[in-house]
Amino acid sequence: MFSSEPGFIRLAIFIAGLLIFLLLEIWIPYRGSTVSKWKRWVINLSFSAFNSVILALVFASAIVQTSLYVTANNLGVLNMIAMPYWLKTLATVVIMDFLLYVWHLLTHVMPFLWRFHRVHHSDLNMDVSTATRFHIGELAISAVIKVSLIFFLGADLLGVLLFESLLVCCAQFHHSSLNVPRWFEKYFWVLFVPPSMHRIHHSVIIKERNTNYGTIFSLWDRLLGTLLANVDQSRIRIGVGAYPQPDKLNFFHLLTMPFTRPVK
Ligand SMILES: [Zn+2]
User: How many whole angstroms from 256 Cα to the centroid of ligand 1?
Assistant: First the structure.
């Protein structure tokens, strides 16, 4: 989205979030690193830069232009129903988050999509930088689905931008290695996804990994029976069991990972 104003807003939120959560990770860390944080950050931020350039060149204007087009022509489901503007914006955020939940679930249960999504899960520690570690193949497929959903919904630019901004902030927060106060987690978990909930999702244990798919709202996991809460957080090991060696997880290996042997 860099080619347009919404792109700069999203980028500014991303950089601000990265710095804020990095400072918080230094101030109230959850636990120390088991592999080189420096190397992980270089890899994860390389993915971020690489993906951002491709998304900006190929998909950003498609997302913005589709949203402007459906709004100008009054197209889409949300434009067929009379409702206040704030409700339409809220509906856009909620529905797009639900689709993201479904998409995330599919990346775990469909072997073809897991080939791409395992790049994200192969991070051996989890912190704010993990939120940017995605294979471009996964992001490209989800961008096509996102454009289709914006068209179907008739989502306007404010709704899409609000969703994208919340998505960035929530993903950065729940990937952060933060020792969040228990009382905060307890209330936050009711509606949203705290780090402890997403930490279970990054467990090497497949049964635990295939739970807690939510990004913004925890509601979908609660409603559809994929929520897992009662796990001893101190024994969670992060990563994919088949990829335990940090030196085999460099940028090139991760870029080619979807096209190598299938792993669970
Ligand atoms: Zn996942």
Answer: 19
Residues 101-129 pLDDT 10s? 999 999 999 999 999 999 999 999 999 99
Residue 209 CA to ligand 1 centre (angstroms): 7
Contacts of 195 (CB under 8 A, 6+ apart): 30, 173, 174, 175, 176, 177, 178, 180, 185
For ligand 1, the distance from its centroid to the CA atom of residue 75, given in whole angstroms, is: 33
Ligand 1 centroid–CA 108 distance in Å is 6
pLDDT per position as a tens digit, 204-224: 999 999 999 999 999 999 999
Dig out the tokens for 53 from the structure. 């350039």
Q: Report how far residue 207's alpha carbon sits from residue 215's, in angstroms, rounded to the nearest whole number.
A: 19
pTM score: 0.93
> 93 CA distance to ligand 1 centroid (A)?
20
